[in-house]
Amino acid sequence: MSASKILSQKIKIALIQLSGSSPDKMANLQRAATFVERALKEQPDTKLVVLPECFNSPYSTDQFRKYSEVINPNEPSTSVRFLSNLANRFRIILVGGTIPELDPKTNKIYNTSIIFNEDGELIDKHRKVHLFDVDIPNGISFHESETLSPGEKPTTIDTSYGKFGVGICYDMRFPELAMLSARKGAFAMIYPSAFNTVTGPLHWHLLARSRAVDNQVYVMLCSPARNLQSSYHAYGHSIVVDPRGKIVAEAGEGEEIIYAELDPEVIESFRLAVPLTKQRRFDVYPDVNAH
Ligand SMILES: NC(=O)CC(=O)C(=O)O
Fold first, then answer.
1. Is there an atom of ligand 1 within 6 Å of 195 CB?
2. Helices 25-42 and 78-90: crossing angle, nearest 10°?
3. Cα–ligand 1 centroid distance for 170 (angstroms)
4. Domain segments of the chain: what residues?
5. Nearest-atom index, ligand 1, CA of 194
6. For the chain, which has fewer Cβ within 10 Å, the N-terminal or C-terminal residue?
7. Where is the CN hydrolase domain (predicted)?
């Protein structure tokens, strides 16, 4: 596929760095709607909007089940219905952050991103594949696997602009998902995320820029704002990185919207200048797309 076809035209995007979610799910959804409306006022032709990880539930292993919803497009749950209406009302592609998902067949809970097209149709979902289980001495211990189960598939979404890949937070530490989407022709990787004040300063920018440069794609990380009243202190710093590894937009720590325009010419010209896509040595190492 030629680089010019990867992203069919320029596209304006917004990442909404919402405040760490309150215990009131409906209030969190309303707040997301207020900010989406504001994004469309401030940048009227925004076509793609991203919300943070766990934007309408506490980011806490003992709360995931309580806040979980069954995701069934035929019987839309509270968040699915709400986000679908939002996407349709503003004619946007909406990467609806993540919500805790209950699979009624297995009784398992997942950390799941739900993605809507401009008609409000739920076009796909991504279940966090790599669970955040860490013990950093004098830093942070967190074990999503206490209550969550891991997703089992990579996710690449087809839209009217082209394809993008979706991962969730810790997924960005594993280059394989981004690589798989890029090999399928994605123009961007989008990660609703919630790094923290220990790992954020160490790795947030590094990982965003690495995934961008590895694959010569745009990378978007959308974080909650920092809330020192909550048990989990999100890093903030939602960020957009271009295919050259250049940071084109970055939030601070508070509640904020950041904007960017993704440009096919930036992808194309950089891939011509540094033609990684033509220089891979699948005779030396395996092609990830061939599995
Ligand atoms: N919260 C996460 O899933 C990941 C994270 O904070 C980190 O990798 O650091």
1. yes
2. 10
3. 5
4. 11-275
5. 1
6. C
7. 11-264
